[in-house]
């Protein structure tokens, strides 16, 4: 039994998602050793034991450091709250384990920098769970762009909107505290930035506006409390490659549930995408008969690898959780030393720097360059 | 070790799909014992061994009857070509195993009838893999209808279209042979019928028209061969409950990839669905301000159970394979003796009778009643 | 002043629509003499006078025969209730006037036959107001089909649905009386048939099912009255050219407002259209990279003549009333003796024969051939 | 004959559009005197005569000042190139005529200011042809917002995109000269600003980024010429009412033909609109069953006045040119001294000031307040 030994810290939604991916990756892809689900850590032994049974892990512990010390564990999934990522990821890397850490890296830039340094020292794989980039349709977009299907890209708009903070009557909770971050900017903007990075590279200059749709929110105890961060962020930016872009994020956008909408404009065509219809892209090309030009709605199909590993027929649809299985497969490639479609700690750090620059541009009401800091 | 012992016969796409479901059902739902993947059968021992490793089964065999004889196997997934279903399912039922058999039951009505009889005798669960009915959005449609959200339903249109037979240049293969069945009718129409059954009940009278878009198809050896069945079928029908319906199926429909489109008309509203956008339904209600009425696009969300078992956020999207995991969970309920959202052999048999009646109505150019035969 | 002299009988919605067209056709097209709006007839002199002022006609009368006798009138628009069409159109034709008559020709087939005969005798233009065929996007569909863009067409589905009869609480009125016609069949099915005719030719055999969603409807006086015709009709049909088709009509379809949905399947592609989005068509072609195939949404543009006569920029949108202006321009071509994109009385009669055949196929529960009668 | 006397200067597309509106307004609305099409001016007498015949004007002239001097002309449509608007509109106003002038008012802010001053002095109606605000669906949006249907609006995104400048191979022409204006900003941004104004009021602060997708464009004579203005503009802005907004304009956006997309976010719901589907809006409300919430696609219908004046049935669709007829009707109301849904020179001037502020914010790379200048 030679499959990789897996440890999992955290069993919230993302922990479950990692567990499902570790469970399914061999069956889906058929070209990798079945990973061994060695050990799972949770905040206490009871919960850990229950979750291990549920998620198929062989052993469990209430102390995550047991996984660090477990020689049978080769790779550790870190899916705990963001504030814990740095300590766990660094410990794992220093113990010679590969790390698969959920995004964002850390609330504080200094912590993210320490994580990146630890990864660089370790020589191990240290990847961030930016699952949206794993969508075969995003890869198809990349293939189209790299293949010149829409010529030279000159402008990109990207929106990420949900409505879980949209109700002004919902109670104040930690997401509205300044200590949790800037609001929409770090909650949401990291995802569009991961897509912009994969498709076009890193950000150079930014100017952001941010808004509090509700100045205060009610408390369970009665009365209300002032909201400390911003549910809406809008950013003008320029990428290093010269492309101009507008990035918009709104976590109070009624009716939007998982929207990540891309509009990519090139010199010979355009591409549209919306994560709410994640199995579709739209492609316009200035080609062929003028009377027949239009946006073409392309449905995900086996030809858009690795969709074929999941379903042999087109148009049947992958789901959100399937993206994590693909990400897991990429991680296994990286661990094998192969080229992988992943965002590692070094690029992840640059994404997080962009977020902090956006916040600064808002605070100082001016364009901020990423080269400044 | 108390989880159910699982045997799997066949590892084509549906076999893989069953394996993924058996692998994931406990992790996803968290409320069932993790099934034990006991044994897998394929056409020869080598393939079986390779697939067992890939799909996580403990043992393997080149002889499917080994599974029948294996006391540790409690339930058998039958995912072999349709012609083998009867023999395997009946053997399994007679050996006291539960059976989870892919659709359709059998090419010959007589075989389907024998399967149903065996199931009735056995007292075991004998369910058919009609996965589309497991979509939480289909359940939501059912809840809407049963709750009176669109009043009394009076008319239903349902279309199932794909394009895998659309190219007249693709070589003649067994799907165009009469021995494989009627064509679109049994390939496709069973799925819409499974949905009609779940939502409204069984069919009473039918009249069908069928078409061969291409009279012949090329042979690899040169020349061509006459097509023996029909890629397109259109059916007027009346359900036992009195609803009138139109059922259309086309496996030569360029551009359609996995379309199963429902239009349900009621006395106070309408519901639309298309499997190509399986995470959405559209609901129109004659309610509220006239100036604000319209079709409402509802995105799958945790409130549409069991979506919540997969993803805690709305609008993120289930995939086709997830439906099989839900089906597997329903099967476990049925085995526990609980009420389950499944199509068992008895109702499955009636679905297949409808197909044969449609073919007869075409051959005899007349309305055919299901009560006739 | 050499423009054609126009008479208008009837000033309901369609009368207004004709008036708008006569008023605008010269300005829009710029290549025809401005018609002279000579005389308008209504049921009494007062209404006629008021409408003439409103709609820009020079004179008015309460007696439509005055228009027949008016030597300055060259062409007469007949937009009165269907039961009056025959008398008026025949009188106009016999007086040597061209006739532009609203659809359908007449409730009774015998009347439609007399109209056709009168037209044939007269040598004048006798056209029916099938405005949907005038949509530039329908012409584009025809150009695509005729140019082989989707290969050989083998199957067509067409639906026409609205919801003006959908409310079971709305009072019984003449549209539910048998004397008004078959219901959805003549209210709606003529429009799809006009499109099928323009694109593919006439119908050969039919079998229809018809449904009354509501057996009775309330009376203003209290109580209720039995509904005498059918709001829903579904028809399997074969065209003379061999294409198989399904035609569906529902005037009780909640949420549908002006839906006329076409699905055209060919050997190398498909075309979709919905009148509710009348400025769009969708085209799928099995061409180019497989990974990039999809339905292409084509927006109406100047290249789709005569859109260019209305708007010089693409994607800005024609409206329903604009179709009548195009129809009017075609009528002027026909009057000039040029080839025109119109449905004349001879083909219109065949469309109405198809309707009667459908009703018969329902009554007799059998396939009916158009060659029978 | 008491209808208003109309003069028209200019017969390009917008001139034709005005002529169509003057021709049809009485027939469509039935509640206003039929305007008299008195005189038309073009650059020379021949063209003027030809256009007068075509568009139905009684007289014509090669000298636009003849219209100013014509006592029978009560209102003048100014549809000439933007650079001529000021001189003509001011002359007309000073001669005591009402003015209906196409947008924008003038390339130079000083000219727009003179126009506004002339209008103020004259006491006559001086309206700008911002036709998009006349869409009944825009009025419905306004009614929804004003009626509190989506609570308090907190954020708005608006995009205007077309592709007439998208081809880098198309020859350099005057639209790329600095003298023609800023590019997308004045070509396009005025339209979104007209909508923002009608719905929410004026702009307070702005910061813009602008891009040249193509640094140079080819010359017919060979070689190329540097592009002097920007085809793409993106603007963060705050309205006087406090709402934050993002305005995006791109005249090189392949595939976009007439897109003006609005996303309006409020405290209890959202509204979406896209001019390419101008007969639809989408409304999301946080109301009713959670499991049934979704964006509702509302089709234009008679209840959305004045759609009813055009068509008595819902979902049949107005066209772009119909908006001008509505605008004409509003103008007649204003002339009668009634409240009208129009943008007059005073608010139009403020819209144009916003454009200049955006350009300045780009040039100076900073937020600019409208109160500054």
Automatic annotation (TrEMBL), chains A, B, C, D:
Residues 138-271 form the GFO/IDH/MocA-like oxidoreductase domain. The keyword Lipid metabolism does not apply. It comes from Neorhizobium petrolearium. This is Gfo/Idh/MocA family oxidoreductase. Keywords: Oxidoreductase. InterPro entries: Gfo/Idh/MocA-like_OxRdtase_N, Gfo/Idh/MocA_oxidrdct_glycsds, GFO_IDH_MocA-like_dom, NAD(P)-bd_dom_sf. Residues 5-130 form the Gfo/Idh/MocA-like oxidoreductase N-terminal domain. Pfam families: GFO_IDH_MocA, GFO_IDH_MocA_C3. The lineage of its organism: Bacteria, Pseudomonadati, Pseudomonadota, Alphaproteobacteria, Hyphomicrobiales. Transmembrane segments: none annotated.
């Amino acid at each position: 039994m030679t499959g990789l030994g897996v440890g999992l810290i955290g069993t919230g939604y993302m922990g479950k998602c990692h567990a499902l991916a570790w469970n399914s990756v061999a069956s889906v892809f058929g070209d990798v050793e079945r990973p061994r689900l060695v050990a799972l850590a949770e905040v206490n032994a009871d919960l850990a034991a229950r979750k291990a049974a549920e998620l198929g892990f062989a052993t469990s512990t209430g102390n995550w450091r047991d996984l660090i010390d477990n020689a049978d564990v080769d790779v550790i999934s870190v899916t705990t709250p963001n504030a814990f990522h740095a300590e766990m990821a660094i410990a794992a890397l220093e113990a010679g384990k590969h790390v698969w850490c959920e995004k964002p890296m850390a609330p504080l830039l200094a912590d993210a920098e320490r994580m990146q340094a630890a990864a660089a020292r370790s020589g191990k794989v240290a990847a961030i769970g930016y699952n949206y980039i794993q969508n075969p349709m995003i890869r198809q977009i990349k293939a189209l762009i790299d293949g010149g299907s829409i010529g030279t890209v000159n402008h990109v708009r990207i929106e990420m909107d949900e409505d879980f903070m949209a109700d002004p009557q919902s109670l104040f909770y930690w997401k509205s505290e300044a200590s949790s971050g800037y609001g929409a900017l770090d909650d949401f903007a990291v995802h569009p930035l991961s897509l912009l990075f994969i498709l076009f590279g890193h950000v150079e200059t930014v100017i952001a506006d941010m808004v509090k749709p509700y100045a205060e929110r009610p408390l369970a105890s009665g009365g209300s409390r002032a909201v400390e961060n911003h549910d809406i962020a809008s950013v003008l930016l320029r990428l290093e490659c010269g492309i101009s872009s507008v990035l918009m994020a709104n976590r109070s956008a009624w009716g939007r549930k998982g929207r990540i909408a891309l509009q990519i404009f090139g010199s010979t065509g355009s591409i549209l995408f919306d994560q709410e219809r994640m199995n579709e892209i739209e492609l316009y090309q200035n080609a062929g008969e003028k009377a027949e030009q239009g946006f073409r709605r392309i449905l995900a199909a086996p030809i858009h690898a690795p969709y074929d590993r999941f379903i042999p027929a087109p148009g049947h649809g992958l789901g959100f959780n399937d993206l994590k299985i693909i990400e897991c497969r990429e991680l296994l490639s990286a661990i094998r030393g192969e080229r992988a479609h992943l965002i590692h700690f070094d690029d992840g750090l640059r994404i997080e720097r962009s977020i902090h620059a956006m916040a600064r541009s808002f605070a100082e009401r001016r364009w901020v360059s990423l080269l400044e800091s």
